[in-house]
Amino acid sequence: MLGLVPSASLLGVDGHAVTVEVHVSGGLPSFTVVGSPDAACREASGRVRAALLSSGCTWPMHRVTVNLAPPTVRKIGSGLDLAIAIALLVASEQLPPEAVEGRAFLGELGLDGSLRPVPGTLCLIDALGASAVVVPAASAGEAALLGGRSVHGLGSLAAVLACLKGEEPWPSAPERVTPDEPPPAPDLADVRGQPVGRYALEVAAAGGHHLLLLGPPGAGKTMLASRLPGLLPPLSDRAALETTRIHSAAGLILPAGGLVRRPPFRAPHHGASSVALVGGGSATMRPGEISAACNGVLFLDELAEFATHVLDALRQPLEEGVVRVARAAATVAFPARFLLVAAMNPCPCGYGSQPGGCLCSDGARARYRRRLSGPLLDRFDLRVEVTRPSVTDLMGHDRSEPSAAVRARVLEARARAQQRGVGTNAAIPVDRLDELAPLGAGAADVLAQALRSGRLSARGLHRVRRVARTVADLQGDTEALTAAHVATALSLRSDAAGSASGSRALSA
Ligand SMILES: Nc1ncnc2c1ncn2[C@@H]1O[C@H](COP(=O)(O)OP(=O)(O)OP(=O)(O)O)[C@@H](O)[C@H]1O
Ligand SMILES: [Mg+2]
Ligand SMILES: [Zn+2]
């Protein structure tokens, strides 16, 4: 007898429809899985057998062949367990084929017959054609997010069988949870002084420009960076779905209400491996931190402490907005468009930018500089130095401008960029700079002067123009860029970052 059951398998952030075919025939008892299963998927035999026996079914003492079609798709993980068990029950005539018609099945089985969630439910559901889907109870909310099909969440194989046999009614669709008010993000009002750091943060949020904060310990770099999410607009429907799919595939906990609506803020520790950061892994092909930060912020605190090869792995995704991971099993592409914010001290002791303050040997400084490649540092449109807040700033009673006020300006500036047909100013293509960021007479002079003095390179020129566009947009100036706009943009591209990193590529 043959049993056929639709299911789906996850590769990267994409679900692929899989048909599970189980054939039971005469011959010595055996269990074979074919159709590109990975090790975890092949081990389904052990889990399915124990789960069937724990659920009051019998294990056929025959030759069992499981084919996972199409064979071109690599089947990773244990998410096909339930579908294999159901197809096996049909093939061994313990379930009538009509009972499973029009239904797809997702989930991993425990040895006790419990039904367990698998990562990527949202992506898997998307790949299914069936009008009804049976999923683990814990995944039902996520499975119902896309709508358009009936979703039944159940806790065990026995419960699924009871419903299939008509002994129990199918559970009703999970209720839509209205998300709780998210906890308030940290507010800029807490940051005293720091006019330059605050302004750079505003420009980064408004134009999507990557930002490097440089300064001595305790200057408030981490404090500033953690306030960036509070300045960004909520995600559009498309972006929310994209980020939610990535979080689902990465096995991250989704917010109540399902969709990730707020821009994610990911701050991986500097000990993170390149697989954790960029994604992959030989077996699972999970998205990494930079993909989890997609449509939001990736914050690399203590940038110089990250391993060099880990940082170099960031360069390609920063350029292309997607990271391609090639493994023996498959090659997958993870979306990775994020706003990069990094913080670092200018040297190992931290006081390098303060006259007479540095305690480091030349060797120690050189080693520190070598950690960061020029090409990576060059990706930062904004490089600013923050100094320790003054006593007056810290002890004063004036509250600083709150995030809400800054955010209002950011949203207006972003709306201006969108009217021009570019997502953010950081994404203005080089060939449209003359049209979208035209230079007034004075502006051209300031840039020419900076180029002549060697402060600015050709590549830096484009970046400065994009930042100047954002500076102008924040002030509500939509005409040609003025000398003042360009001078402000140049001042946000500090040479100190260059001298601290010692990289010539950095001279703006
Ligand atoms: N401008 C400021 N206004 C108010 N508090 C501040 C400010 N700067 C620093 N602080 C206080 O100092 C603490 C340390 O700041 P933070 O961790 O942001 O420094 P940092 O620049 O990241 O230092 P490090 O280089 O050691 O990581 C903050 O938690 C805050 O309490
Ligand atoms: Mg810090
Ligand atoms: Zn030093």
Structural overview:
There is one protein chain. With 508 residues, the protein is of the alpha/beta class. It contains 23 helices and 18 strands. Strands 11-14-17-10-18 form a five-stranded parallel β-sheet, sandwiched between helices. Strands 1-2-4-3 form a four-stranded mixed β-sheet. Strand 8 (132-136), helix 6 (140-143) and strand 9 (150-154) form a beta-alpha-beta unit. Helix 8 (195-207) packs parallel to helix 18 (403-419) and helix 21 crosses helix 22. The protein is elongated, with a radius of gyration of 28 Å. The model is unreliable at 497-508 (pLDDT under 50). Magnesium ion is lined by residues 221-222, 301, 343.
Broad shape: elongated
Number of helices, where a helix is a run of at least 4 consecutive DSSP H or I residues: 23
> What is the share of helical residues?
25-40%
Major sheet attributes? 5 strands, parallel
Give a list of the ligands.
Answer: adenosine-5'-triphosphate, magnesium ion, zinc ion
Give me the secondary-structure category.
alpha/beta
End-to-end gap: 71 Å
Could you tell me the radius of gyration in angstroms?
Answer: 28 Å
Summarize model confidence as the mean pLDDT.
89
- Which range does the strand content fall in? 15-25%
Low-confidence stretches: 497-508
Strand order of the largest sheet: 11-14-17-10-18
Count of DSSP strands: 18
